[in-house]
Amino acid sequence: MSGTAETMSQQAYSIIKDRVLNGTYALDQKISIKELTEGLGIGRSPVGEALKRLEHEGLITISPKSGNRIWNPTLAELEQLMAFRKMMEVGALRMARDVFKLSDDLLKLCHHMDEAMEDEDWMRYEAFDYQYHMTLIQSSGNQYLIDSYRLVADKIRLARNNMTRTFGQSNAGHYDIANALKRNAFMAERELDKHLTVSRERFTRS
What we know:
This protein has helices spanning 3-21, 33-40, 44-56, 75-95, 99-118, 122-138, 143-160, 167-183, 185-205, and strands spanning 60-63, 67-70. With 206 residues, the protein is mainly alpha-helical. The protein folds into two domains: 3-70, Winged helix-like DNA-binding domain superfamily/Winged helix DNA-binding domain (Arc Repressor Mutant, subunit A, Orthogonal Bundle); 75-205, Up-down Bundle (Four Helix Bundle (Hemerythrin (Met), subunit A)), CATH 1.20.120.530. A two-stranded antiparallel sheet has the order 1-2. The radius of gyration is 19 Å and the shape is elongated.
């Protein structure tokens, strides 16, 4: 692939992935290469390469019979995804090297989420929510854990598109975790477990 083709493929990949994660497409929605090429003004080959990358990441499925569709998880897949998420985040919290700095960093993100809610900017809220949980993961200092979490982080964001979010309640849970870190690591772990359990129940009820 030439340099120009790679650039076009990367551009198509970035645009389509952003649409997938911000809820432009519904779960299981069929996406047409023809419509994408016409809408993006990018050739069929770069768009096809972009879709293959997204398939590799598990965000879309490509089938000769059903075409290109947004990933639509089964209940069993959601259960496994959320169990993996809890294992990763609780494990990261236990390995956190500086819980006071982590608490401060998380509280700053909570404030940003408050501001996003005041502005009713839900995409900005989601971005800070993602950053909150990634900050928690990165606090472990364990690159294998960080890389493993990144493999499923986008799927978690995509699955959220199919659930009813209660942003105020969600951010209250974020505050509880961050504040508990300053008092007792075990309390913080309990608050994190509670927060993730509530999220899991919302995912599987949707």
